[in-house]
Amino acid sequence: MADEALSSLEKAAVLLLSLGEDSAAEVMKFLGPKEVHKIGSAMAEMRKVSKSQVEQVMDNFLVAAGNETSIGMGANDYVRKVLVSALGEDKAGNLVDRILMGSSVTGLEQLKWMDSRSIAEIIRLEHPQIIAIVLAYLDSDQSAEVLAQFPDRVREDVIMRVAALDGIQPAALHELNMIMEKQFSGSNNVKSSALGGVKCAADILNFVDGSVEEQVLNHIKETDEDMGQQIQDLMFVFENLKELDNRGYQTLLREISTDSLILALKGSDEEIKEKFIGNMSKRAAETLREDLEAKGAVKLSEVEAAQKEILGIARRLGESGEISLGGKGEELVG
Question: What angle do CA 61, 319, 334 make, to 5 degrees?
Answer without folding.
Answer: 135
